[in-house]
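Hi F.,

I've been meaning to write this up properly since the lab meeting, where we talked about keeping a consistent format for the predictions we share between groups. The idea is simple: the sequence comes first, exactly as it goes in, then the structure tokens exactly as they come out, then a line or two of notes. No screenshots and no reformatting. I'm using this chain as the first example so we have something concrete to point to.
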Amino acid sequence: MAFRRLAIAACIVPLIPAPPSSAQAPERRWLPEPVLVASFVDEDGTLFGDPRGIVALPNGGFALSDWGEDAIRAFFADGKSAWTFGRSGAGPGEFSFIQDIDVSPAGEVLVLDRGLGRATIIDALTGQQVTSFSIRTAGHYGILPSSGPGRVLVIPASEKDKTLWVSVSEDGAALESAAAPVACDHSLACEAFSATTGSMGAAVAFRWSSKVIFLNPDGSVRFVIDGLEELPIPGVNTESTRIPEFGNATVTRVDRSAGEAALGITGDESYLYVLFGGSGEERRRIVNVYSVANGDYLGSFLFPNSLAGLAILSDGSLATLNRDLFPTVHIWELSW
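Output, unedited:
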């Protein structure tokens, strides 16, 4: 799912041991070239709108978060529209700022509206709202299904919270939280992406660090690995700058020398797919694959064009979002 997420950075404090397989970083191993099997192009902006996040649906199709119309758009596997939910506003069935979307193993689309501080849950097959409720916690950057107390797990945005997630009930109350297995000095350095991994739980990958956290279905941490690139969480600098029409200003930003690790994540019960940021001609084109069972690095796929999002579909094919010219969803067959 896609997206601006978690807050966890600067100094790393391992509380959960990594599996033995992550002790030594492996060299990149290229997997067979992905085979393009279908493309759905939105040339006039009426099919996908302004898509940002993509998730897989139980019917074999996919759903997109449309920032232009503040809506969730669902599609069948053949690219035909299944349903659309939402519009701009603050009332029932409306969104202000769709921060994140995910799909639960029970077949519900979870939508986190950061602007309204609200979670909306939609039936993935019918597109009908199941429930909607406010979230009375601090800033939040991500949403995951809950198998324990509460309706959803919300990933907090504040570095002061020092929590990996907060369990939220339907009355918006925070019921319990899990301690983060890494520490953070500033949320800017800890933007992260989360995705469910079926009955195995979920995973969280970071934009500026190669750390990947694997969760059990109840949200407890199974283990933490260092991804292939071994990028540490960077520092954050405060600088003086001049902004046109506004004058002098002080800005806080991630260290300019930092490399981007994850820019998207998707998974199923067997594999976790992490879109690597990288640089140069390969930027946003590499997808690293890890075993959900033990965190082992299994190899990397190289795509012909840059990706803006990815979702592993129920048949094992990979749906990718491209925003370079016209919004496009490609479907790829992966082989090992």
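Notes:
The radius of gyration is 19 Å.
Residues 2-23 have pLDDT under 50 and may be disordered.

If this format works for you, I'll send the rest the same way.

G.
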